[in-house]
C-alpha cells in the first residue's frame, strides 16, 4: 500500500470542536492516507494500473499536458494495460503523492518532499499554474475510482494549497517563473 498503509474508513470528525494545529495535521494526514486506498502503489496489476490510469486520465482531461512527457502520444494510442514507461513513472508519481499525504503532519518533511519534486522538474518547463491545478485533477481521478467524502475532499484541498505554496516558493528561490499568491 505504500507509506499510507491504512484501510479506508468513515472519517467523521466534529468540525465545531477546535483541535490543536498539530493534532489537526495528523488527522488530515490520516484522512489523506485513508483515501489513497483508491490509488495504492506497489507490485502487481492494480497498483501498476493505478499509475497508468492516472496518466491516461490526465492526458484525457488536458491533452496539452502530453507535451511535457516524451512518449505520451504513443501511450494514449495503446491499450492502457500494455506495459509502458508510464507504468514505472505512474508508480513514482503515486509514491510521491503517498509520501506527501503521509508527511502532511510534518511540515519540514512535507516541504522538503515538495521542494525536491519541483527541483527535479526544473528542466521540464512546467507552467507554474499547473502546480496549482494538479491536486484538483488528482481528486477528480480519485473520485473516478471510488467515492470520496467531503472531509476527504477538504483534506486534499488543504494538501493542494500547501503543495502549491511550497512549489511556488521553490520556483521563486530557483529564479524560475512562479505565480504570486
UniProtKB/TrEMBL annotation:
Keywords: Heme, Iron, Metal-binding, Oxygen transport, Transport. One of its GO terms (molecular function) is oxygen carrier activity. The keyword Repeat does not apply. The keyword Iron applies. Residues 26-172 form the Globin domain. It comes from Pristionchus pacificus (Parasitic nematode worm). Belongs to the globin family. This is GLOBIN domain-containing protein.
Amino acid at each position: 500500500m505504500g507509506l499510507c498503509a491504512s484501510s479506508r474508513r468513515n472519517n467523521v470528525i466534529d468540525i465545531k470542536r477546535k483541535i490543536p494545529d498539530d493534532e489537526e495535521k495528523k488527522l488530515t494526514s490520516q484522512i489523506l492516507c485513508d483515501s489513497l486506498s483508491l490509488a495504492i502503489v506497489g507490485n502487481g496489476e492494480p497498483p501498476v494500473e493505478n499509475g497508468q490510469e492516472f496518466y491516461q486520465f490526465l492526458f484525457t482531461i488536458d491533452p496539452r499536458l502530453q507535451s511535457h512527457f516524451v512518449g505520451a502520444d504513443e501511450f494514449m494510442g495503446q491499450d492502457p494495460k500494455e506495459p509502458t514507461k508510464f507504468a514505472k513513472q505512474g508508480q513514482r508519481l503515486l509514491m510521491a503523492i503517498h509520501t506527501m499525504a503521509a508527511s502532511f503532519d510534518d511540515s519540514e518533511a512535507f516541504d522538503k518532499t515538495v521542494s525536491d519534486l519541483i527541483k527535479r522538474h526544473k528542466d521540464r518547463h512546467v507552467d507554474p499554474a499547473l502546480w496549482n491545478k494538479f491536486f484538483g485533477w488528482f481528486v477528480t481521478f480519485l473520485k473516478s475510482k471510488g467515492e470520496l467524502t467531503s472531509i476527504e475532499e477538504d483534506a486534499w484541498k488543504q494538501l493542494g494549497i500547501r503543495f502549491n505554496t511550497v512549489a511556488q516558493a521553490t520556483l521563486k528561490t530557483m529564479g524560475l517563473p512562479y505565480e504570486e499568491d
